[in-house]
What we know:
Helix content is 33%, strand content 26%. By secondary structure, it is α/β, with parallel strands linked by helices. The chain has a domain at 5-69 and 105-178 and 282-351: FAD/NAD(P)-binding domain. The strands form four sheets. Strands 5-4-13-14-15-12-16 form a seven-stranded mixed beta sheet, sandwiched between helices. A six-stranded mixed beta sheet has the order 7-2-1-11-18-17, sandwiched between helices. Strand 9 and strand 10 (150-153) form a beta hairpin. GO terms for molecular function: FAD binding; oxidoreductase activity. Keywords: FAD, Flavoprotein, Oxidoreductase.
Amino acid sequence: MPPQKILISGAGIAGSVTAYWLGLAGFNVTVVERNPELRTAGQGIDMGGAAVEIIKKMGLEEIIRAKTTGELGLSFVDENDKAFATFDVGDKNTDIGFTSDIEIMRGDLCNIFYTAANTFPNVTFLFNTSITSLHQSPSSVTITTSTGKEETYDMLIAADGFRSATRRLILNNPNSEAFIQSQNCWVAYFSIPREPQDHPRSRGYNAIGGRFIMIRPNDEKLSSGYLIVSKDEPSLRAVQRAGMQAQKAVLAELFADAGWEAMRVIREMKDTEDFYLQDVARIELGAQGWSKGRCAMVGDAAYCSFTGTGTTLAILGGYMLAGEILQRPEEPEVAFRAYEDKLAGYVKKAQSAPKGGPQLFVPQTRLGVWLIRTALWLVYRSGITRWIGGYKMPKFDLPDYPFDARVE
């Protein structure tokens, strides 16, 4: 029989990685993306564990490493920009440290995966297109797109983020907030002109009121600015669906008296075009599972994480989902269950975080700021970075799927 037709919603990291492996296996893949072009805005991200093995399998490791930010580590600083604790890039074999061995801008990584998937003649990307309705039968999935076109596919995969519109259609749940577990924390990230002190390490600064500012290396001309608010801030929630300028205005007011380089970051934020604000959340679909009939979910749409493991989970999830589909192309429901069964335990560990989440590391009070600074200083001085360094991904035994044995 001819190769099956698979539709993927979302051209981000999870969607493009899934498309790559399905394309390599010989499936006919269409990827729809609601934005008019590949969304290249976003923060610096890292990856570890099994994700590094996967990019090696894709032949992309050298390309990805060539695009890394060159960040050597993270320094925590006080109001006078004096570093009191510095944690450099961890040993790649132990994942120790706050900075991963592979630190790259989200847009660069998205473009690399998109380009790799788009080289297959059986993979097609359609931009400015989204799914508006779907209907499942025992043998197919029929969808209608925002262009008014109706198409039938053998399978549908939602890879369109933690507020996935496709997930709502698959689960027939109109509530856009269903399954989203807010962590009462907000993060804004954007590019700012680079200054000499911005390289080669990131710098992080705690201010009272649950505020945190970070400046990270990006490239020779730009740095990445981060403004973090670790509380359920009504003023931010009020502009969550508003435009960029309204969100920037609220953040400028919230950080006006934060100290350190706050005024510089606010000033440069006002002119940036790659600004993005999001509330930090976790997705747990629970008993609902990651699939329904001939439809499955991958990446943030199924298991968004706020522990810094989201990129790794997206890459691993795309590989595993494509691999299980390859194993059972005529039985998608069985393939989807196998994908979840093999990955769910790992995802649960990767999503785990200390009780209190972001509020533990970005405290509200002057005493809280003093305590977290003291704790970081003690850890730095003692040399026991391994106990509180960046999140260490649990080990995962990566299956070796026969993707080269193309579907006929």
